[in-house]
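Reviewer 2 asked us to include a model.

Predict the structure of this chain.
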Amino acid sequence: MPNADASNLVEYSRTDQIVTLTLNRPEKLNAFSDELVVALNDALRRFDAEPEAHLAIITGNGRAFSTGADVIQRQLRSREEFERLGGPQGFGANSADLLVKSVNWKPVIASAHGYVMGLAVGIVLECDLIVMEEGTQVQITETSRGLGAAKYWGLMHYRGAAAFGTEMALTGRFFTAEEAFAAGVINRVAPKGTHMDVAMELAREVCKNPPLSVRASVRARRWYMDQMGREMAMMSAPLKLYLSEDFHEAASAFAEKREPRPFKGK
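Predicted model (structure tokens):
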């Protein structure tokens, strides 16, 4: 079970009504270990409960927002662990729960730069508004890792970019912040080094409104998003792709810094 005392992994600060949650594992490009997922969940619950806080911005320290799941910890577990846990996530460390379990339904903005990959793509797409620095590289790594990308396709479809989402989910290629903006996936592309400034400007614009009316919209949006996410999970869960030979080979190849051997479809 992840260590719940991982507050140093997410920096929490508040300026007036706006909270900034900063992923703080820069030496690993903010790759999501079980502990980082737990720390972000704790920070979001703290934000949700703080009366003076009306909006949160999630960003990352260092060269990237996040390169996704910590492959060594989460994707190289034993088969017995995968069967016991029902997937790569540890107990209490399911990133799918981060933004759909709330009491006050306050808005959250993703402010991303550098790289947004894998699991981090899902977190960013689940945020209510998205700002990316120009040139940010985004990739749905689940496709090449043998896990499938139904959730990410669904989230892009939910944002009105079904055709673009289908291409990204099936090819697993890198795409840029500019492509995502053109497809309607994100809200703003910020000049280099200004993604937090642009996110703060957007946050202040939201905070001019009565908090309860904003939260009503957030609650409706996230409720429908959660229903879609659960449908995607129900459709893909029986496949148990995390037990496949191809998934194991892809994760092992990544850890060993080599090209994967030919996939078998098994």
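Residues 139 and 174 are 5 Å apart (CA to CA). Residues 211-236 form the longest helix (26 residues). We have added this to the supplementary material.
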